[in-house]
Amino acid sequence: MATPQFLPIPKNILELACETISRRIDRLPFIRNGIVIDKGIVGVTMECLNAEVSRTLPLRKVTRGTGTLLPGLGECLIERLGSDQGAIAPVISEILVNAGLAEPAEVPDAATHTQIRGIRLHSAWTWHIGSGDVLPGSAPYSGGETDTWLARCPVCRTGILGQVTGKRLFGIPPTDYYLDCSHCGAKFIPEKNRFRLVSIARIADPRWRQYLNSCRKPDEWAALVQVEKTARPAPRIATSWYRMAQKKTEIPLPPLVIQRPEKPSRPVEGVPVSFSMLRDGTLIISGTAKTLYFRPVTIRFLRGTRHHLFSHAERTLEQALKSPAFTDVKPLFIQDYLRYLPLRLGPVTEKLRRKNDPLYRQLLNRYGDEDFSSFAMADEEQGQKKGILIVYLQGKLCHVAGCHAAFADLVDRSFGNITPDQCYRDGDETACRINSLVTAFRGTPVIWIHELSDDSAIDVTVSGLCSRFLNVPAKLL
To answer: Which ranges of 427-468 would DSSP assign to H, the alpha helix?
Structure first.
């Protein structure tokens, strides 16, 4: 078999790939499953995938139909990095997939007649000998230098615009493809040599609302980004009067302080409680049978923030309305939205939201329209313990739960893994609430745990906390 040609990855593609991983997974370098993931491993892995014609490699070697062996990603990494690097393959492949640089794939093995798990590099992140300095996202549109605007989304100026084919946008005439931002979800549809902005996410800068549904050429979108970046006036450190006064030494002037408006924070719903705190950040709850010590849970975020997660629900509106949770709103939809019944629930709810129809809120639970993220407990050993879990934020106690199983089962698989269906009335309102709090207050301790091995003691303690602080029945999980 021919030896693969490992074409060196262009510097700008590697830098953008590392920036994407740092933004969506964790800041490089970091440790995952005992393996140090750094810039070098990311570059070598992408070179191994790019060297294949199909940009696809199995995680371990397989037998082709001709009887030849196809080395897996593990063997390629061993060849490139050394004999002790084969265990990196499943770890780095998971990171590339979660970061959006690659996708899972299956490679047939002729010897066992089974499908072997593999990984495929997205076409937007491939390169060839003539790529030069072309950034990811611009390769499918080789119309000139203006196509480099795809390397940076004009709306959020952070993500890249990737080509999406084989899908339709709800309420938009069919097109061969559309462009989707990897960070904010902005969508552009092609119209001859122009692109129309048909969707924006929750953009902090309200000026971008005026560009919604506007159609511009690629170089005009690129120029607009430059104008937005340079149009922001820099704060004036000192006026001419201030500089003149500084020259007069007999009148000392106070230092000039520039005050920036504080970013408004989301109000937290809960019972105001003042718990004592130790220097190491441990919460102390006294006044019970014994003093309880709650340690903060360090959260590891797996993906970026997801806006309007409910819009991805796959079941139909008719299927959802069969649930008893929708009994009071079912007659309204049957009377006024009969044509929507066979359509998917997610796009229907999103269309009602865009039309400012308040009925869409009747389909969701109280927290179904919040921003969500995927996360897990960073300390795996801590996650295997059981005991009592509380949600405590900004001096307010929001939730108390007893865990008879591992903490990780509740935090990783319930609170940290919200599905679109959970955003609706018949979903998990508590999980949505806690996930939205963790997402909104990143970097701030939100979840706290007290390890306890006695199941009966867990029940008694949780019951006491709920009756004392929340005046609600205990919730045991």
So the answer is: 429-440, 455-465
Specify the pTM. Answer: 0.47
- Cα within 13 Å of Cα(113), Cβ side: 0
Q: Which H helix or E strand runs over 6?
A: none
Residue whose tokens read 């924006």:
200
Name residue, tokens 């709650």: 294
Show the tokens assigned to 114.
Answer: 């089974």
In 231-344, which residue ranges form alpha helices assigned H by DSSP?
A: 240-246, 317-321, 330-336
Dihedral, 329, 334, 335, 338 alpha carbons, nearest 10: 130
Helix (H, G, I), strand (E, B) or coil at 468: helix
Q: How far apart are CA 76 and CA 70, in angstroms?
A: 10
Spatial distance between the Cα atoms of 407 and 387, rounded to a whole number of angstroms? 8
Beta strands in 226-373 (DSSP E): 271-272, 276-277, 283-285, 292-296, 299-301
The residue among 189, 419, 171, 463 whose CA lies nearest residue 306 is 419
Please state, in angstroms and rounded to a whole number, the distance separating the CA atoms of residues 68 and 335: 64
3-state SS of the chain: helix, strand, coil percent to 5?
35, 20, 45
- Digitized pLDDT (tens) for each residue of the chain, 477 residues in all: 455 667 888 888 888 888 888 877 888 888 888 788 888 889 989 988 888 888 888 888 887 766 677 788 888 888 888 766 667 888 888 888 888 788 888 888 877 878 888 898 887 788 876 555 544 544 444 334 445 577 677 777 666 777 777 777 766 777 877 888 766 778 888 887 888 888 776 554 555 667 778 888 888 887 776 655 444 444 444 444 444 444 444 444 444 343 433 344 567 888 888 888 888 888 998 866 688 999 999 999 987 788 899 999 999 999 999 999 999 989 988 888 888 899 999 999 999 988 888 888 899 999 999 999 999 999 988 899 999 999 999 889 999 999 998 999 999 999 999 999 999 999 999 999 999 999 999 888 999 999 999 999 999 999 888 888 887 654 443
Domains, in order of start, for the chain: 11-125 (1.10.10), 145-227 (no CATH), 271-304+373-470 (no CATH), 309-363 (no CATH)
At 123, is the secondary structure helix, strand, or coil? helix
